[in-house]
Amino acid sequence: MVRSGPRVVVIGGGIAGLAAAYALHRDGPPGIEVTVLEGDRRVGGKLRVSTVGDLAVDEGAEMFLVRVPEAVELARAVGLGGGIVHPVTTAAAVLVAGVARPLPAGTVLGVPADLAALRASGVLAEAAVATVAAEADRPGEPVAGDVAVGEYVRRRLGTEVVDRLVDPLLGGVYAGRADRLSLRATMPALARQLTAEPGRPVPSLVAAARAARAAEAPAAGAPVFGTLPGGLGQLPAAVAAASGARLRLGLPARRVERLPGGFRVVAGPVPAPTVFEADAVVVAVPAGKAAPLLAEVTPAASAELAGIEYASMAIVTLGYRAAETPGLRGSGLLVPAVEGGAVKAVTYSSAKWPHLAGHELTVLRASIGRHGDERVLQRGDEELLELAAAEVGALAGMPAPPVAGRVTRWGGALPQYAVGHVERVGRIRAGVAAVPGLAICGAAYEGVGVPACIRSGYAAAAAVLGHLAQPDGRTARRSGG
Fold first, then answer.
1. Is the pLDDT of residue 348 over 60?
2. What pLDDT score was predicted for residue 474?
3. How far apart are CA 315 and CA 409, in angstroms?
4. Phi-psi category of residue 175: left, alpha or beta, with phi > 0 → left and psi -120 to 50 → alpha
5. Fold exhibited by the domain 7-45+232-308+417-468
6. DSSP per position, 58-108
């Protein structure tokens, strides 16, 4: 018999791959067949939820930006939008010489835009504040090509701004170091302000931060973040169900091959492989896994993918008896690397989220692990739990030890947007685009947040559907049985 629609294989069942599968089903031609291959026994990638005590708490990403539409709209489309909740507070603190200081408002990933808020926070010494204030009146320094965030900010605003603000905030997003991360890739809105254009003088860094914030600021009173009351980890399963895709779990893909009329995807163990033929393929796995998959069909893109480094980390979730817990103020605490210790950030989950408040258990999440310094992650779970409990107890002023705990390890979880990342991604995309019917998506390219991953999945689906719509985009195959 002749199939009525094209076959598409999506390699990777994280939120990017699932978003691609959903968009293929939503926007594709009648009869389209989508298969999702996932090496794990579950879909979701870094979105996962499980219980601590009797509370459902995310193990990975816990929230998404609301001011961009993708996550909110997808949650609504798959039946979860009615329960979106927003933080009770987003007022965080940063540890400075052992003292928690309020994180100043009005920054772009730590780059100050509001001098009054910076001075009032007490995060910087007065001399450092004076340096920032003086920079606002200095001629701007255009960003030509790319530069490390830490290098540029230190040159303009001084070391304290990098160590106490920029590095901790970037560490929270990428588990990386400001001195290695790309300004253009991690702060694109700021980089645009600092790019020389005919007839427009390049502003100071402080002025550029103000302009970048103004361009992206939400409406007055509008929430910035959101999540699902049962945990953001609920989203992948709902998207998978809505996609209509055939899920093949516990079946990692090993190789993509080009055929005259499409592709062959080889998956599973070498002695007994499972082979899929497809008219198009979407690769939605981390760069280190995508590289060998694509080595035959696009060697140049494969080599570039292999050059993207990743950071490993762990999330240690701790539960305390609420009756023994002091009142937690704010959403959490950042711990700069210069302060020492293993914990780089603590989220006061029960104070931050309304659905986790008012229970017998108070929940905190500790983040451990920075790129290039993952030795602490070599400890066993029990030892890591004890270490986190000791540091969190001191940082948050917990008078009693936790009564529940969970260690979640994310090996190679966060791509490092190193200097030159934007250009690298451009070369990867050019190599992939040269292979009709092939597309890529995920956190390795233009954003690590949930909406960015969803957006990349949609773009991959659109590229594949555009190819399939061409007269020679699909060759109907006969299948027996």
1. yes
2. 58
3. 7
4. left
5. FAD/NAD(P)-binding domain (3.50.50)
6. ESS---EESSSSHHHHHHHHTT-GGG-B--S---EEEEETTEEEEPPSSEE
